[in-house]
Amino acid sequence: MKEKSSLTPEDVAAILNIAKNTVYELIKRGELTAYRVGRKIRVDLQDVEAYKKKGKNLESTPVNIPATTEIPTLQLEASLEGDSFSPSPRLVICGQDVLLDILARHLERHPNGTYALRHNVGSFAGLLALYRGKAHLASAHLWDGDKGIYNLTYVRYILCGIPAVIIHLAYRMQGFYTAKGNPKGIKTWQDLKRPDLVFINREKGCGTRVLLDEQIRRLGMDRRQISGYEREEHSHLAVASAVSRGEADYALGNEKASLQVRGVDFVPLQKERYELVMLKEDMDLPPFQAVIEILQSQDFKKELQGLGDYDLTELGRIVAEV
């Protein structure tokens, strides 16, 4: 092999007589310094020689990545074409709104972006995945009924002291789905007390369920008195569909789903903040900077405006560092 000062991962693998996947592991762990040229990874020959001289066992796993490396501290993928990443790395984005699907698509096209894996879970599950290192971004719309604020309280406690950044996505309206024409006259949170109504609930841990339980607590109710409270579905569309089929009199969800399901009306109750959370330590890495740039771009905002039913006045604004 012809020596050169700038080496591909394949070159490094040949020099060290190891698998190419192991080279990516060494880079990810910070044992081998690397840098990007566009979407490609390069290693200087002198850094390979320095690694060889250290005589490190390839199974060692240092926990700190040197500040000089430009490789994000994320899972590096070995599915490549040539020596370009495809993708590198993948970001896991937790949340259930179509807005996040659009974000993932824009991220794939961004010069510093990457491919994203979407995990459709509720706010609690998403924040727990972020805390456990199983996700890189998580959306949240968790209401603190005592303070009258969204997300800040939950992010602080679920992430258990790990610094995080909260970025605003959109305001959405939450309310009751009812049968067309609202024949039961459902209008306010007080209607949760009515014994003649059958409810259908969302799963534990999602933002809609948290909002419901907080309102029940504030009303001083016993949730077991709500007929149908124990029956759960895992999306806005699922509960709206159940109402349209007559399987329940009402359900709680966002306005957008009511426009997608025939035979339901929407009773607006509360405007919520829908926001994105990332770890502060990741914020300066290229893929995360790409996310922020996308959220603050006019192209992204225009596409969301085309969908309607979002208040985007604060889209992309960093609202808190926790």
TrEMBL record:
Task: Please list the residue ranges annotated as the PBP domain.
Answer: 104-296
Q: Supply one GO molecular-function term.
A: DNA binding
Which residue intervals define the domain Helix-turn-helix in the entry?
7-54
Pfam families, sorted:
HTH_17, PBP_like
State the protein's name: PBP domain-containing protein
Which organism does this record belong to? Pelotomaculum propionicicum
User: Top-down, what is the taxonomic lineage of the species of origin?
Assistant: Bacteria, Bacillati, Bacillota, Clostridia, Eubacteriales
